[in-house]
Amino acid sequence: MEYLLLLLGFTFLIFSGRLLISGSVSIAQRLNLSPFLIGLTIVAIGTSAPELLVSLTGAIKGHTDVAVYNIIGSNISNILLVLAIAAIILPIPVKSRIIWFDGSFMMLFSLLAWFFLRDLRFSSIEGVFILTLLVFFITMSVIRSRKDSQDDISTVKPGMKVWVAVLYVIAASGGLALGANLLVDNAVSIAMEIGLSERIISVSIIALGTSIPELTTSAIAAFRKQTDISIGNILGSNIFNIGMVLGVTTMIKPIDANPLILSFDIFWFVGVAVFLIFILLLPPKSLISRWKGLTMLLVYLIYLYLILK
């Protein structure tokens, strides 16, 4: 029964995430936002919503490993799995300004998370600080997008009326809350039954499950040759996972981290962000080619092997 409820929780997260994205993107298009900015902010918020609800639910229920490792595992899988698959489907060109501005912010948020977790605790004050930084990042991104003539403003007509889009967002929020509750309760229960720690199941199965919205969004965008949305979604989602998910969660309930985070997990967490920048600077520069995507996927398999062995 627990496995069925776990699957049901994943299902609610997937479909609610897609519903939230559809409604949010429709609203964003009416505001004439560029495709990259939609991916970086609106879609990233929607695809990070499962992580937010899962981490918040885990923290409130006292499952702190779920709260922290869901974010760590999700950020790692976003780059090494989601972006890799999108690049294998269709190589992703990346503008140099995206590498240096958005990539730099992703690195900054990752390093801040490392710095704040050195004492194995993420406090409410630190949550307020990192959430404020996120608001600054969003503001700067909107200003840059408006001023940058190279960003083609989306000409796609919104596919639904505003009131329908708002209903989508409201319904999706309820579905995400229900899905997160089912996922956390039953994942923890299963982990205890089969002898896996909350850390392992959170950084692998739960993180992979909450990354499914990013995976489906980036894959669909790649198939449609909307690569700006693919890269914007991943960079934005990783930034939002730290700034919004970790920030909001710790503002509501401070988190005590597992000591293992300092000896293994945080190095992968920050290292994968560095690895992405390195990949983008390798020839062909500013392009995530298929061979780069395959390399990233191989690194992800190595990571899974190391945490599960």
Protein model, in words:
- The chain has 309 residues and is mainly alpha-helical.
- The chain is 81% helix and 3% strand.
- The chain is built from 11 helices and 4 strands, in the order αααβαβαααααβαβα.
- A two-stranded antiparallel ribbon has the order 1-4. It has a two-stranded antiparallel sheet with strand order 2-3.
- Helix 3 packs parallel to helix 8 and helix 6 packs antiparallel against helix 7.
- The longest helix has 33 residues.
- About 3% of the residues have low confidence.
Summarize the helices and strands and which ones pair or pack.
Blueprint: H1 2-30, H2 35-60, H3 64-89, E1 92-93, H4 96-116, E2 121-122, H5 124-147, H6 162-194, H7 198-210, H8 212-223, H9 227-252, E3 255-256, H10 260-281, E4 287-288, H11 290-308
Antiparallel strand pairs: 1-4, 2-3
Helix pairs in contact: 1-2, 1-6, 2-3, 2-5, 2-6, 2-8, 2-9, 3-7, 3-8, 3-9, 3-10, 3-11, 4-9, 4-10, 5-9, 6-7, 8-9
Features:
single chain; 309 residues; mainly alpha; A middle domain of Talin 1; two-stranded antiparallel sheet; two-stranded antiparallel ribbon; 11 helices; 4 strands
> How many separate domains make up the residues?
1
- The CATH architecture classification is Up-down Bundle
> Superfamily at the CATH H level?
NCX, central ion-binding region
Q: Indicate the structural class.
A: mainly alpha
Overall spatial form: globular
The average pLDDT is: 81
CATH topology: A middle domain of Talin 1
